[in-house]
């Protein structure tokens, strides 16, 4: 996985250099958090990596994700767990630039490679936003994500790198849009050490 993340980083240098993330930070640990689970199996059955924008901490901005398991390969990109400040900033940004955002989400290459935009949403438009806004459906969201799975047969082949890079390249304009209104976090030494 370290070798794969390094190869993904080399690819990102061409279309998303700000998302290059060291393998040590990008790769999730293999140990499961069993504290609140009935299943005490100590290890995960998949391996995953998350790459996010330089200057931010994980989950404080839009990013890219992939995982490999014996069952499937997963690809994702977007904003998954924004804090209250990030959530408000993204909603305001979408409300002001909704036509551009919709155009990005309907890109033919992106639509052909990923499933439609997903994400948990509120039951109505949040307070402070016009419920009749043309982008009310997008403003209601709490997450803006692309996600898709693929059969695991390419996992052990050189094709996997191309599959990851093709999807990351297609998602990058949307991820960049979602990051435009966000301000980099103050990074502590603990954040840098993982």
Give a quick summary of the entry:
This protein has helices at residues 2-15, 23-26, 84-96, 98-105, 108-113, 136-139, 159-179, 189-193; strands at residues 47-52, 63-68, 73-79, 144-150. By secondary structure, the protein is of the alpha+beta class.
Average pLDDT taken over every residue: 93
Order of helices and strands: HHEEEHHHHEHH
Number of helices: 8
Which percent range fits the helix content? Answer: 25-40%
Q: What is the β-strand count?
A: 4
- In the sheet with the most strands, the strands line up as 1-2-3-4
Q: End-to-end distance, in Å? A: 17 Å
Radius of gyration: 17 Å
Bin the strand percentage: 5-15%
> How would a textbook summarize the main sheet?
4 strands, antiparallel
Structural class: alpha+beta
Give the low-confidence spans: none
- Morphology: globular
Describe the structure.
With about 190 residues, this protein is α+β, with helices and mostly antiparallel strands. The chain is built from eight helices and four strands; from the N terminus they run ααβββααααβαα. It has helices at about 1-15, 25, 85-95, 100-105, 110-115, 135-140, 160-180, 190-194, and strands at about 45-50, 65-70, 75-80, 145-150. The chain has a four-stranded antiparallel β-sheet. A hairpin with a 4-residue loop joins strand 2 (about 65-70) and strand 3 (about 75-80). The longest helix has 21 residues, at about 160-180. It is globular and about 50 Å long.
Topology of this protein?
Layout lengths: L1 H14 L7 H4 L20 E6 L10 E6 L4 E7 L4 H13 L1 H8 L2 H6 L22 H4 L4 E7 L8 H21 L9 H5 L1
Antiparallel strand pairs: 1-2, 2-3, 3-4
């Amino acid at each position: 996985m370290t070798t794969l993340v390094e190869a993904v980083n080399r690819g990102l240098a061409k279309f998303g250099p700000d998302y290059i993330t060291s393998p040590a930070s990008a790769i999730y640990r293999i140990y499961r958090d069993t504290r609140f689970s009935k299943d005490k199996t100590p290890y995960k059955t998949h391996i995953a990596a998350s790459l996010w924008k330089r200057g931010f901490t994980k989950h404080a901005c839009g990013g890219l994700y992939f995982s490999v398991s014996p069952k499937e390969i997963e690809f994702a990109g977007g904003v998954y767990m924004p804090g209250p400040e990030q959530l408000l900033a993204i909603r305001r940004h979408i409300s002001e630039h909704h036509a551009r955002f919709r155009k990005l989400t309907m890109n033919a290459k992106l639509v052909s490679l990923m499933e439609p935009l997903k994400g948990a949403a509120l039951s109505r438009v949040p307070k402070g936003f016009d419920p009749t806004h043309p982008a009310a459906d997008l403003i209601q969201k709490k997450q803006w994500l692309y996600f898709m799975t693929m059969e695991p047969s390419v996992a052990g082949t050189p094709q996997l790198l191309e599959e990851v890079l093709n999807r990351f390249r297609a998602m990058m304009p949307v991820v960049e849009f979602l990051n435009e209104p966000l301000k980099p976090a103050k990074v502590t030494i603990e954040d840098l050490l993982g």
